[in-house]
Design brief:
The chain is mostly helical. The protein folds into 2 domains: 82 residues, Rna Polymerase Sigma Factor, Chain: A; 97 residues, Arc Repressor Mutant, subunit A (Orthogonal Bundle), CATH 1.10.10.10. Helices cover 68% and strands 0% of the residues.
Amino acid sequence: MPDWAEIIERDGAAVWRTAYRLLGNRADADECFQEAFLAALEVARRQPVRDWGALLRHLASSRAIDRLRRRYRQKVAPTPVDFDFDAIPDAGPNPSRVAEDAEISEALRSAMAELPPRQAEVFCLHHLEDRSYREIARDLGISIVSVGVLLHRARRRLRQILETSQEVSRVAGRGPASVAGPADRIEEPR
């Protein structure tokens, strides 16, 4: 039987961060965290687990992406990101930058909900968790070439979705055409 206290101590923070980065609020991240550990328990009952951290991050990102899909299918407004405005130092980013970053994050979350599950998962593991192609391939049981292909397709699709979203905003008069949007921030690796 796995030592859950040790696993939570060692991997819990990374698992929670994975969910939070995708979802943007504590309540949803907490639920994904719990769902990931429950799913890991089921996996452990069926087969031995080689890498608990990789399994738990994989499960957390899958659960978070599922939650994003439900959120955008149901057109449910996301819960505002938890901010403690009194804790923000005066020298921090200005409020317009914070608002812009929140808007970009929300646009990316919405776009990710439209990706096929495997593409979204690979994108999250690479860009949000800073996992290498080799680590992702090992954790997901696919080839390194497949990781590259999935990542390329995810970036291309996200760019298309975000550019379409920017065009809709411009036509609707919600944003100037000269301002860079979320699609401009998705870059291919050098």
